Amino acid sequence: MVTSGSPDYRDGGLEFAPDFVIGSATASYQIEGAAFEDGRGPSIWDTYSHTPGNIWNDDNGDVADDHYHRVDSDLDLMADLGLDSYRFSIAWPRIQATGSGPANERGLSFYSRLVDGLLERGIRPIATLYHWDLPQALEDQGGWTARATAERFAEYAEIAARALGDRVHTWTTLNEPWCSAYLGYGSGAHAPGRTDGAAALSAVHHLNLAHGLAVSAIRSAATNDPDLSVTLNFHVIRGDDETTPEARRRIDALANRAFTGPMLKGEYPADLIEDTASVTDWSFLRDGDTELIHQPIDVLGVNYYSTVTVKMWDGVSPRQNADGHKDVGGSPWPGSRDVEFLTQPGPYTEMGWNIAPDGLEELLLDLHEQFPDQPLMITENGAAFADEVVDGEVHDADRVDYLNRHFTAAHRAIEKGVDLRGYTVWSLLDNFEWGYGYSKRFGIVRVDYDTQLRTVKDSGKWVARTIRDRRTPSV
């Protein structure tokens, strides 16, 4: 079993309130398959994954977990686990093949069936409107570097809310816009694979704008008074070098405050604009935009997996680039190429990410301090490990330990006053892990990609027991 040093974070028997929502999550392109069926148009991930060399083993999401055809049995599986909630994403190109125009009723019907199936099984539907699968037709017109994409996103949000807005409990506008902007347009590690710092910053703004416009659209279209949210992948930044404070400020501005500033405070950080002045003049930011972005939300989604350690590069020694993301040549840090990301001490998951449950507690406490009136929810947390099937079982002790320690961190944050509403484990199923294809398994349920057989892992049983008993199993 993977082990780690102090603090231990291995508490057992931790009680969670009856209204603390424990569930699991997936994303459309990673599980649905049926990429060319029922009117779905191509997304940037279809294009990117079908370009040789972009994905491990040249994998793609054409079939994935075949969830589109197996939705009923997957719903039964969720019910067997006793999930309080299921966080799924809607594939924009299933609703509008080209990202604009009339809705595709066959696409809406699939998600309506999914939502109805969740409600029939007593599972709270949490719908994410954007988990990275931008319609390719919109990318051809500029993608997230174009203001029009934010406007089209608001129209799509209204369509989805009119169709499902009498039943969906929580709407999440965007999942991890940091990845969409900086990995998609800056580093090239994600679709659409661009490597332009100015484009990445333009994408940051238009994703922020899309969020604000979508919140307004959903509030006007939904009829069941849903919760509104956004999910951000916060960077917990560490280091003990004398230059770390400056490096940390820069990365915090790019990774965290570029989104929380306009979304939660109604302004971009002045130091972010100053740091990136050599990259862009921010002319895409128009008067009144921050007011459009700054819309009240009911819950802030928090995705957490690991920490980063930084210092300023001296310009002489070999520069470390251990930021935890695939290096394909570009940079996800426009204006801060002189920040160095240091290799962190282990242990690590199969992704090479360090295991640091104390980072989750630190993050939750920091967000609570910054935004004391903002309820939080962990919308993703989990780990990839090299699972093995033995006699039809998956004894994933490392993942069980990982979850136990991070649930412990969350519980400690609650005890210190954090308004944490729930915990969503990533992910329900093994799936297409973006640039890593099918080589990394995050699921609490194993998927045999040849047969599509689902096998609940020990981690899935651990989650089910935690939900059933409203406490973590004793260790």
UniProtKB/TrEMBL annotation:
GO terms for molecular function: beta-glucosidase activity. The keyword Transmembrane does not apply. The keyword Nuclease does not apply. Its EC number is 3.2.1.21. Substrate binds at residues 30, 131, 175, 305, 426, 433-434. Coiled coil: none annotated. One of its GO terms (cellular component) is cytosol. The active site is at 176 (proton donor), 380 (nucleophile). GO terms for biological process: cellulose catabolic process. It is an enzyme of class 3 (hydrolase). Keywords: Carbohydrate metabolism, Cellulose degradation, Glycosidase, Hydrolase, Polysaccharide degradation. InterPro entries: GH, Glyco_hydro_1, Glyco_hydro_1_beta-glucosidase. It catalyses: Hydrolysis of terminal, non-reducing beta-D-glucosyl residues with release of beta-D-glucose. Belongs to the glycosyl hydrolase 1 family. This is Beta-glucosidase. It comes from Amnibacterium flavum.
